[in-house]
Design goal:
This protein is an alpha/beta fold. It contains 11 helices and 18 strands. The chain is globular and about 65 Å long. 50% of the residues are buried. It binds flavin-adenine dinucleotide (FAD). The site of flavin-adenine dinucleotide has 45 residues, from helix 2, strand 12, strand 16 and helix 10.
Length: 440
């Protein structure tokens, strides 16, 4: 994959974010207890949690913190993982599955508590999160099990029928079969959250080097040495937090990792701010994600735009013309908006793994890797950072509520673009059939 330009791409979030803090000036020789490579939520949260435990962390970020998925996402804070305890139990056992789900269930709490503790200026609103079923089958197979799981774990989740879903969306008739609402979720300005995490980390003593891609990673006795342009960082431990941008444009930092993920594009558009005639749209300001395999996700921003996202074959520099499918999706949901003109379009990469689960790997002693948010990461990556910090400061893997696994490579990784295209067509068909009630 070619690394696109390292300047922050034009997007709603880049245009409305809080200013970035002043980052650390590189020195020719630097040392750290833990070197963190990648300055998205995962790397920033790792470094912040390390610093709060008294460990010296230095982040190397190829562009500016938040340049990757963390500054381009939908800003929907969602508690927990996509997989249920039942789905995880088959892979990791009942107890481990329970620990994973229960711990990740606290991810939205972690995000909002960090925002409060550090007074982060990122337009965070804890307005809840809605997952809407696009037909009876996904309602039965996806929505109800998640609702039931979280109710059984003490969350005040709600099941919404079609007319309650319509009210939550602010539409006369729901295009969705039903939904469940999770009160733990909410929305925020994602690039501001990344920059504010960086500011919090700096305030705790983390050093953050922007525009400093790690070029080479080597074991050096019991520790590690990381070479970047014009500087060298020596560290006892390394956390690799490059996720969907692993291997993007520079040498592979660790052999084989790229083959364990496929980066796929998610695309978003934002309308111009909507006037008060449209205040009925998403009246509670919650984030919404639907149950399609090629899912749609939407929300309002703090200036009343409607932000709509979905899968797209478009790569890194989308144009307004590429927004046509999302404009039609907006019109389908909120006909009063017609085909709304986008004010912004942008895209980012989501890391898909073979089993669609996030993974921690430890391919060598003192090297901790996170990969595979599979499209959900505002909460998840913040929590992942907390766990990676524990691992990097010596907490035994067995005491961390997430398994350490071996990277599982995609066969025919070189043909991934073709594979993603073929699978997208197939998923589109299944989604349509389910929405029409033709799959039971
Ligand atoms: C369009 C889109 C919409 C999404 N919407 C949502 C949502 O609404 N809710 C949700 O929960 N999740 C969402 N996600 C997922 C979420 O954004 C990600 O899971 C999360 O941001 C990943 O964070 P990260 O820190 O792991 O990776 P990233 O934020 O991608 O950070 C990786 C960083 O590594 C850096 N890097 C790469 N190579 C090197 C190197 N050699 N040296 C130094 N640095 C390097 C890159 O520059 C990049 O900044 C969305 C994702 C996308 C793309």
């Amino acid at each position: 994959m070619n690394m696109p330009t390292r300047q922050l791409p034009r997007s709603l979030w880049a245009a409305t974010a809080c200013p970035a803090p002043a980052y650390t000036q590189p020195r020719a020789e630097m040392t750290a207890d833990v070197a963190v490579i990648g300055g998205g939520y995962t790397g920033l949260s790792t470094a912040l949690h390390l610093a709060r435990k008294g460990h010296k962390a230095v982040i190397l970020e190829a562009a500016e913190p938040g340049w990757g998925a963390s500054g381009r996402n939908g800003g929907q804070v969602i508690a927990g993982m996509k997989a249920t305890i039942g789905e995880l139990a088959g892979l990791f056992g009942q107890d481990a599955a329970h620990r994973m789900v229960a711990n990740m269930g606290g991810s939205a709490d972690l995000v909002f508590s960090l925002i409060e503790r550090y007074g982060m200026n990122c337009h965070a609103v804890r307005s809840g999160w809605l997952q809407a079923a696009h037909g009876p089958k996904p309602y039965r197979d996806l929505v109800v099990p998640r609702y039931e799981q979280w109710r059984s774990l003490g969350v005040a989740a709600e099941l919404l029928n079609a007319s309650e879903t319509a009210s939550a969306l602010g539409v006369a008739a729901s295009p969705y079969h039903a939904a469940w609402r999770d009160p733990r979720g909410g929305v925020l300005q994602p690039l501001s959250y990344a920059r504010e995490l960086a500011r919090a980390a700096l305030s705790e003593g983390v050093e953050i080097l922007a525009y400093t891609p790690a070029r080479r990673l080597q074991q050096d006795g019991a520790g590690w040495v990381i070479a970047a342009d014009g500087m060298t960082l020596h560290a006892g431990q390394v956390v690799l937090a490059t996720n969907a941008y692993t291997g993007a444009g520079s040498e592979s930092l660790w052999p084989g990792l790229e083959r364990a993920l496929i980066p796929v594009t998610s695309f978003q558009m934002a309308t111009h701010p909507l006037d008060e005639r449209y205040d009925h749209i998403l009246p509670a300001g919650m984030g919404v994600t639907d149950s399609r395999r090629l899912l749609l996700y939407f929300r309002r921003d703090h200036q009343k735009r409607l932000v709509m996202g979905g899968r797209s074959p478009v790569e890194d520099s989308p144009t307004f013309a590429d927004a046509a499918p999302l404009q039609r999706a907006v019109q389908g949901l909120f006909p009063e908006l017609g085909l709304p003109k986008p004010e912004f379009v942008w895209s980012g990469k989501v890391a898909i793994t073979k089993d669609r689960l996030p993974h921690i790997h430890q391919p060598a002693a003192g090297l901790h890797v996170f990969m595979g948010c599979n499209g959900r990461g505002v909460g998840l990556c913040t929590m992942m950072g907390k766990m990676l910090a524990d691992l990097a400061c010596g907490v035994p893997a067995a005491d961390v509520p997430f398994p350490v696994t071996v990277p599982d490579s995609f066969a025919l990784h070189g043909l991934r673009k073709l594979g993603v295209y073929a699978l997208s067509q197939y998923y589109r068909l299944l989604d349509k059939m389910e929405a029409a009630g033709r799959l039971r």
